[in-house]
DNA sequence: CTACCGATATTCT
DNA sequence: GAATATCGGTAGA
C-alpha cells in the first residue's frame, strides 16, 4: 500500500471519511470517484456491524486498514467499506455513492437501464457498477486488482456537507454521512422507518 | 417529485 | 419471529 494511503487510513474514522471524498476506487476497467460516504466507528458505534463484537461477517473490519469489507444484505444487495484504523480497531467507511469516471460501458452492462447519474448512486448500486461481491471481501485496496487512489489533499471543507446516516435506527442522530455538496450522484436521503410487520398488516386488513 | 412495498440472507432476540 | 448500513417498480400528486 502506498505510504500516503496507509497514513490516511490509520487516522480516526471521522477524519478518514471526509478525506475519501474525491478519491477514486478502481476495479479493472471501471473507476468511481467517491461523492458520498459514511463513517462507522466499530465498538463505539451502535450503528456499526462491529458494535457487538466479531462475527464471521464482520471479521475483516477487525483486520488491518486498507482492505475492502463487503457485506451482503436484504437478501440481494452487496455494500462495500474501506477498513480503517489500526488492526484491532473495527472502524470502516461505507462507500455510499460516486461518479463513474472510467469504464462506463462495462458499468452500464452491470446496471441495465440505469442512467449515467444512477450508475453508482447508492451503496448497493456502487458495488454493482464496480462488479464487487463477497468474493472481494478482505481484498487489499493497494492493487493490483483493486486500487484506491486518495486525493493528495482533502477537498476543501467548504465543499463537504454532513448529515445523519441513512437507513439506521440506532445512533441515527450522529452526523457521520459526508458528501460533496451539489454533486448529482449523491444518493437520495431515506431515513430509517419502522415498517409494519406482516402480522400488523394482516390485522389491519382482516375483514371478518 | 414522494410514498409505499416486495424480495430475501444473515444476524439478532 | 423480526430487523436490517437497499433497490426497483408502481401509483399518485
Structure notes:
With 208 residues, the protein is an alpha+beta fold. 18% of the residues lie in helices and 26% in strands. It has helices spanning 3-9, 13-19, 104-110, 123-130, 198-205, and strands at 24-27, 30-41, 68-73, 77-84, 91-102, 146-149, 160-163, 177-180. Strands 1, 2, 3, 4, 5, 6, 7 and 8 form an 8-stranded antiparallel β-sheet that branches. The termini are far apart. The relative contact order is 0.21. The structure holds a DNA duplex (13 and 13 nucleotides).
- Low-pLDDT segments, ≥5 res: 198-208
Which structural category fits the helices and strands?
A: alpha+beta
Which range best describes the helical content: under 10%, 10-25%, 25-40%, 40-55%, 55-70% or over 70%?
Answer: 10-25%
* Gap from first CA to last CA: 66 Å
| Major sheet attributes | 8 strands, antiparallel
Q: Determine Rg (CA atoms, Å).
A: 17 Å
Helix count from the secondary structure assignment: 5
- Basic shape: globular
Query: What share of the residues does DSSP label as strand, in percent?
Result: 25-35%
Number-wise, the strands total: 8
Order of helices and strands: HHEEEEEHHEEEH
Mean pLDDT: 90
Amino acid at each position: 500500500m502506498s505510504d500516503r494511503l496507509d497514513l490516511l487510513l490509520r487516522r480516526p474514522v471521522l477524519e478518514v471519511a471526509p478525506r475519501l471524498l474525491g478519491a477514486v476506487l478502481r476495479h479493472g476497467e471501471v473507476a468511481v470517484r467517491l461523492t458520498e460516504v459514511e463513517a462507522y466507528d466499530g465498538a463505539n458505534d451502535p450503528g456499526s456491524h462491529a458494535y457487538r463484537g466479531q462475527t464471521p461477517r464482520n471479521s475483516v473490519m477487525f483486520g488491518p486498514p486498507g482492505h475492502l469489507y463487503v457485506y451482503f444484505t436484504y437478501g440481494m444487495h452487496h455494500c462495500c467499506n474501506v477498513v480503517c484504523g489500526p488492526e484491532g480497531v473495527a472502524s470502516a467507511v461505507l462507500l455510499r455513492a460516486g461518479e463513474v469516471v472510467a469504464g462506463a460501458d462495462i458499468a452500464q452492462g452491470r446496471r441495465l437501464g440505469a442512467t449515467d447519474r444512477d450508475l453508482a448512486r447508492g451503496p448497493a448500486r456502487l458495488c454493482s457498477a464496480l462488479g464487487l461481491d463477497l468474493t472481494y471481501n478482505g481484498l487489499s485496496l493497494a492493487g493490483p486488482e483493486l486500487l484506491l487512489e486518495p486525493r493528495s489533499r482533502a477537498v476543501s471543507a467548504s465543499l463537504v456537507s454532513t448529515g445523519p446516516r441513512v437507513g439506521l435506527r440506532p445512533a441515527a442522530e450522529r452526523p457521520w454521512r459526508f458528501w460533496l455538496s451539489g454533486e448529482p450522484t449523491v444518493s437520495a436521503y431515506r431515513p430509517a422507518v419502522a415498517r409494519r410487520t406482516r402480522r400488523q398488516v394482516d390485522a389491519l386488513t382482516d375483514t371478518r
